[in-house]
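Preliminary data (for renewal application), zinc ion complex.
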Amino acid sequence: MFIGWAKGERFGCDGKVQVHVEIELKDTEHGPALSIVGDITRGRGWFECGQIQDTIRDMLKKGEFIKLKVPREDLEKLLDIWDRWHLNNAVPYCPHQAAKAWELYRQGITDYDDIIKVPEMAKCPVCGYRYGSKWWYEPIPPDILAWLKDFIAAHS
Ligand SMILES: [Zn+2]
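Predicted structure:
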């Protein structure tokens, strides 16, 4: 999906760069699995690719987009969904630890060694699961799933 053109300065590029995002919703035995990757290119030059949502967010904030092909508010919503639901089929927390895990992530606590110091992460009070010992599937909320499908259909 083509997101738009932006100034190339931050990438050391004189002209415009193109920003693309690929959103994949793959059916799994548990439900849809979301994967999002982006890339920033000019011609055959690649400046950034993969998990570039922070770069895109910063470009938006600093007014570096010359022309957006999707509404700005939709792009902002997509970036938030990207942060929260990318690879929802492989999360390291059990369903009971999800809220606490995201509270920690938002505080910048993302290292396993730090997370596991939190008692409810070391041992879930409900099911006894130890954070990080397997991958779980976390269902995407229906309203977010519906929004994503509409967004993909509208822009592909
Ligand atoms: Zn649990």
